[in-house]
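Re: How this chain folds, sequence and tokenised backbone to follow
How to read it: Take the token row as a discrete description of the fold.
Start of record: The labelled sequence and token lines come straight after this line.
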Amino acid sequence: MRAHSATRVLVGPAAAWGLAVGVPLLFLGVFFAWPVVSLVARGFVTDGALDLGGFGEVLGRPRTWRLVGLTLGQATLGTALSVLLGLPLAYTLYRRSFPGRTLLRGLVTVPFVLPTVVVGVAFRTLFVHSGLLGAWGLEESLAGIVVALVFFNVSVVVRTVGGLWERLDPRAEQAAAALGASPWRVLRTVTLPSLGPAIASAASVVFLFCATAFGVVLVLGGVRFGTIETEIWVRTTQFLDLRSASVLSVLQLVVVTLALFVSGRARARREAALSLVSDVSAARPLRWTPADALVLLVSLAIVGGLMVLPLAGLVARSFRGPTGEWGLSNYVALGTTGERNALVVTVWEALGNSVRTALWATLIAVVVGGLVALVVSRRPRAHGARRAVALLDAAFMLPLGVSAVTVGFGFFVTLDRPLGIPFDLRTSGALVPIAQAVVAVPLVVRTVLPVLRAVDPRLREVAAVLGSAPGRVLRTVDVPLAARSLGLAVGFAFAVSLGEFGATSFLARPDAATLPVVIFRLIGRPGAENYGMALAASVVLAALTASVMMLAERLRGDRAGEEL
């Protein structure tokens, strides 16, 4: 009897952890790996036999290398500018305290989760000939695309670097200053080397996002500028050239793998550095010294010029009607299907579709991502187990870097009867929230994981010594602390699902289109009324997304979400 009870005690936790690992892996395998691998494999199989001639054909085109150059060029420029502009903002928001700092932190976070189509439309209204910056020649230019990418990714740098900067022990800087070092020399020789791992981690993630940007490039690039991501979309949707799309997907996967490798190494170094810092925030009240005043002015200029100006221009332009008059005509038209029935559903109906889809996607992403974060937060003693945990963490970051177009089209290739189930998922509305959840899961993991890793293992050990079963330890120790980041994780997942465009543009039926898809369709239809509706719809979607993120910021814990 005792042996039987002991077996049940041992098998119970093992089965629970197996389930915690198995459910996310099954989700990732069925709804990410299988569609991507199947679609890519179809490009290398001709008449049932392996044929690698597509590599030579695609890599031999000058257009391919032009696209590779544009992809790497925009990613490099976007990353460099994001880091350069993000550092003064990180100092202001995490190293200094002042009234309104929390609100400003939330404002800086909002661009990261704004729908790509909305951002593209916002910058397009500035760059067109009649726009505020029309004289600068940024319409359909590489510079315009890079500016929009920086708008998106500055918040990644601010939160990643700022989270470490806030907790750096200030005594090293104080010692250097006491020995006569100037503020610039202290920054260069003490502060920046300490921040190096966080800067490297942020830069690698930003490079990943810039290299796989889709909606912004599609809206702002026109016919002159494209990337590997947009070329996959063109080859798949317009030419049904799966062979070329497969080769391009492999090229993109190589870039993504290298970026994730660098990011993982940098994150590991960052965690080692964080163990050495003080637990007390080093933020001090803002002082009106020349250095602080300069950094504050630069930060306000970045927020105002890069973040507020495009959105303010979008809002202002949305109140100008088709004939140039000011009023609410564009917003009134949201209840129609547009000029010449450009849409199948109204904008308000599309908004309802977006909200319902995002709710389901958020539920899936939080469950799957929460399980992944719980498993990855453990630090097993065995080397093989630690390696397996690291691989699991890296595997669930892959959806951030793989073309959403590849994922979306792969769904159609594979999910007619998934795993032999007699049900065609392609004809149901379930594919859209699943595809959006695939994109949102990595963000949930990155939001919850830092909090779980910060749990002192001794708390679990004490609870176990006092007789608590593993399940009770989880409920009483991990779950209450993880709940601190749950609000932000839900906010990220919901906002990202609202704005997801790449895979949704493939999967959403015309009668169930989401708002980003409707906005893109309005932009592509002729007529001033359709364009005005696109502007007004973009404002509605941006306002909803911003509201969700601001609410999530207010609900977050003190340390939740410092890492994206």
About this structure: Strands lie at 45-46, 49-50, 96-97, 284-285. Residues 2-42 form the longest helix (41 residues).
